[in-house]
Amino acid sequence: MSTLTLDAAEKIVAAAHERARTVGKAVSVAVVDAGGFPIAIRRADGARPLTPDIARAKAYTAAIMQRPGKMLKKWQESQPVFFGQLSQLPGAALPIMATDGSVTIKKDGEIIGGLGIAGGTADEDQQIADDVLQSLGYELEFAAWGVAGQSAGKDV
Asked: Within 13 A of 51's CA, how many CA atoms are on the CB side?
C-alpha cells in the first residue's frame, strides 16, 4: 500500500505554484491523503483569501470520491439533490465540489490522495493540476463509473 508523504505533497505544491506562475496566476494548492486529511496547503502571494479553503475542498472531494472533479460533474448534473446531500452527511468534513481543479492522486493503480488548485479559471486550475501530476509521474486515467477496467480517460 502506497502513501502520500509530506515530502511528496510538498513537491506537488511547489510544482503547482511554479506552473501557476508560468501562466501568471496566484493560486492556492492543497494536497490531502486518501482519507481527505490535509497534508499541505499553501496560498501564493496575491492569491485571494478564500482560495485555500476552496483548494482544500477540491482536494478532499477528489480523494474521498476517488475520482477527479471533472469526472464527477456529469454525475452531479444528473443527480443534483443526491450530490447536494453528500456534503450534509455526518462524516463529511468539507463540501463536495465536483469541479475542475479537483484531481485524484493515483500512483501504481492506487488512489493515494487528492490535489486541489484554486485561483485561476476552472480551465487554468485543471490544466495546472493535470500538468503537475503528469510531470511528477502520477496517473491521470480512471475507470468509467460502473465499468471495471474500462478507462474513461482524462477528458471525462
From this structure: 21
